[in-house]
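User: Could you write out the 3D structure of this protein bound to iron/sulfur cluster? I've included everything you need below.
Assistant: Certainly. Input first, then the structure.
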Amino acid sequence: MKYDMVLDPTPGRKAFLLGNEAVVRGALEAGLSLASTYPGTPSSEIGNVLHAVAKKAGVYFEFSTNEKVAMEVAAAGAASGIRSMVFFKHVGLNVAADAFMSTAYVGVRGGLVVITADDPSMHSSQNEQDNRYYAQIAQMPMMEPSSPQEAKDMIKEAFEISEKLGLPVLFRMTTRVNHMRGVVEYGELVKGKPKGRFEKAPSRYVPVPSNARGMHIRLLKKMEEAEEMASTSHLNRVEGEGDVGIITSGAAYNYVADVVEEHGIRARVLKLGFTHPFPRARVREFLKGLKTVVVVEELEPYMEKELRAMAQVEGIDIRIHGKMDGHFPRHYEYTPEVVKRGLNSALGLNLPVGGVKVREITVPSRPPVLCPGCPHRATYYAIGAVLRAKKIRDETIFTTDIGCYTLGIQKPYEMADYLLCMGSSAGAACGFAKATDQPVMGFAGDSTFFHACIPALINAVHNRANMIFVVLDNRTTAMTGHQPHPGLPIDGLGDEAPALDIEKVVRGIGIEHVEVVDPYDIKETKAAFRRAVEHNGISVVITRRECALIMDARNRKAGIFRKYDVNQDMCTRCYNCVENFACPAFYRDEEGGVHINPYLCDGCGVCSQRDVCPFGAIEEVKKE
Ligand code: SF4
Ligand code: SF4
């Protein structure tokens, strides 16, 4: 099986693992018993690996409904004395934050590791928040690996430290470490306890004010202990010698190490892995004899602020450079070039910058698009036609959500006017329905519906919001790699599970106007939206058709290769298919003739309907 290499029992074996795969291996070497998540890139592969191997490894694993639930499940596991792990992308921690904060107060018995996968440069995210500040707000120890090997080794230490302190540990990764491949040397696999036992102790586990006050004092004491641990930890190590100091962590360390070695810079580098609490004793020792220190870290000046505060409080006379005096940028991922520029600026060096010269070539811009055969395209197409016919296309406010359908922002659909976070399509639609007299339509996928839309829809019912809510139900969590969700009959362990019916849930919370349609049937889909537009009050349309990639994979396996093409004798060159339906398989030749690229066409056949090609010019290609 694809991920079985993480189950190899041979200590000393070396494997070429993704950072996310190494995390699973490390957790299995630590005796993991329970893990939970809501999928989100760049952490998604951790879940994919566990989905494949958890059962064999004797670990309980679930794709929870959302990150807050995942956090609560893992916290309960740790409170029951079993080693537990929860992981999500950085913005997932915002969703989990309420539970996360209190978990630091009530503490843990079994080790609890909370992985946050931050996304500098926003490769697949709406912001690039620096989640290291969560460790400060929650008062939680934090670790930051720089490579797959470190990720594997540090996870084990994170569990141990968590148990020693009785606190959860925040394990902060970034895209470059999650998705980096590297050689990882295995240790022993350790079987986790199959079940724990919860020992009742309300004064410890129930933070009502009278208990929480004592909990906070205990937490602060534990963090003093944690600072001593961080100061003596081998995860915070010094490399090299020189008159200049560099403090760094995470992915930035790799670039610093490369630049220092390649250019023979005489520098003493403090590589921090256990970064919260700030290991002041270790840093104090490191600074001895230095006149200048540079802090190199991605995103916010997190360590730099700690260092500046420490120097001020302790009266340490040293020049500190970093982001706060403008030498390093506060946004996007770093590269060796960024580090060189920063060091040049901070230290007056003259390191060559500009990187390897590559031949400049002009490539056409390729904005991300919905896949050929994507059912969402058909939905957007049908809605556009209905709203245009009703002459309300332009004034309708479209709230959207996190998923493939965010691509509805692209031309020609342009049905994404407002987005905040998971579930905001429903909540913001309620707001717009109250704040304006404009028609309002919200879009969310099936996984997002379960994740965070239900409370907002309850809000819409109770507060009588006049809006249309569309659930683009493609039967999977598509954007993060096709993970299951509560609407599917499979759970995180791969076992059969009860599948919740979105229509019943929606009706159950009091929404009466609900329709389920197949978006591939454009005529029916248009009719359903016409009725929804005419309905006064909240209406929900569920457009249900599985993700085209799943259909493609199944067809390929079954040897089915359907293709469509344009009959040039019938085509009038009206261009409705190209300009309004806009499947990326269509293209125009130099004379203006329309064709379908057979390598892109997935044979969905939607474009062959008269609602797309009014002249019936698109036909299935008959197999020779
Ligand atoms: S919609 Fe039909 S007639 Fe119009 S350009 Fe496309 S294939 Fe030709
Ligand atoms: S059949 Fe038509 S809509 Fe479907 S993938 Fe092919 S060209 Fe695109």
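The chain has four domains: 4-229, 237-347, 375-553, 561-620.
User: Perfect, thank you.
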